[in-house]
């Protein structure tokens, strides 16, 4: 199960309103291979795709890409108001480590064909 903090839920509602999202749209969260730690997070306002996991809540919707569910199960999505780093933050129990900027992670179980800690994925090469 994926959870949102109260702040994240409020900011997600604000985001969907600012993007004039329809009731069927939500914030779609996906993981893709890349980033300085091996896997990175992508978020965009869109419609759910086939087999996506949809979390509906009052006035909003979070969509988890079907191919990313295993990497995101048990996550907590929070919202940080830090002056220099505000935005959605993903607390991922499936990550063995995170990059310095928090936008990518190395999963505990690597996707087929991915090797751990190649030089460009050292978690220290963030912008």
Description:
By secondary structure, this protein is mainly beta. It has a single domain (3-107), classed as Hypothetical Protein Aq_1857, Chain: A. It is built from two helices and nine strands. A six-stranded mixed β-sheet has the order 4-5-2-3-9-8. Strands 1-6-7 form a three-stranded mixed β-sheet. The longest helix is centred in the N-terminal third of the chain and has 13 residues, at 6-18. The radius of gyration is 15 Å and the shape is globular.
Topology summary:
Elements: E1 3-4, H1 6-18, E2 26-33, E3 39-46, E4 53-57, E5 60-64, H2 69-72, E6 76-80, E7 87-91, E8 95-98, E9 104-107
Parallel strand pairs: 1-6, 2-5
Antiparallel strand pairs: 2-3, 3-9, 4-5, 6-7, 8-9
- Give the CA-based shape: globular
Supply the CATH architecture.
Answer: Sandwich
Mean pLDDT comes to 84
Uncertain regions spanning at least 5 consecutive residues: 118-127
Measured as a percent range, the helix fraction is 10-25%
Helix/strand/pairing category:
mainly beta
Largest sheet: 6 strands, mixed
Summarize this structure briefly.
The chain has about 130 residues and is mainly beta. Helices cover about 15% and strands about 35% of the residues.
């Amino acid at each position: 199960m994926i959870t949102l903090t109260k702040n994240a839920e409020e900011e997600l509602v604000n985001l969907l309103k600012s993007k004039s999202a329809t009731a069927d749209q939500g914030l779609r969260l996906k993981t893709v291979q890349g980033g300085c730690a091996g896997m990175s997070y992508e978020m965009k306002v869109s419609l759910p795709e086939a087999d996506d996991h949809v979390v509906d809540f009052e006035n909003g919707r979070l969509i988890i890409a079907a191919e990313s569910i295993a990497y995101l199960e048990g996550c907590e999505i929070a919202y940080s108001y830090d002056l220099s780093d505000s935005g959605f933050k993903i607390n991922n129990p499936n990550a063995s480590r995170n990059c310095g900027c928090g936008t990518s992670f190395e999963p505990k179980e690597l996707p087929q064909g991915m090797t751990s800690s190649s030089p460009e994925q050292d978690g220290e090469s963030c912008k």
